[in-house]
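Quick one: structure for this chain?
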Amino acid sequence: MKTYSPKPSDIERSWYFVDADGMVLGRLACKLAHVLRGKHKPIWAPHMDTGDFIIVVNADKIRVTGRKADQKTYIRHSGYPGGLRVTPYKRMMDKKPGYILYEAVRGMLPHNRLGRQMLKKLKIYTSSDHPHTAQQPESFPF
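Got it. Here's what it folds into:
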């Protein structure tokens, strides 16, 4: 039996809609990464982007469990000595709530060109409005 490798013409991309209001950050990010990679499809191949587009609304209403709201931090570095910047979860939630979900999903995708290509199919909005109504998104397949 030969190994199946999908051709670019075999890949059909769907659009999915997710309302993140009250959802847990890690659990939602895991499901989003699964669909962005295309692992829910029978034609999935690890070396190709077979995933679908996802629209997430109300990203500012996402929640975390336990004491993560007090303890979780986001770290970045400028590259210069002493350039480490640490931002607590609460301040990041006030400043950039969409970035929190974006980083959680990014950490669950491959860390290479393919992962960056998959991440471009994730559209995150903090309000309940989005400009993708023309794509006629379906409800998310949990």
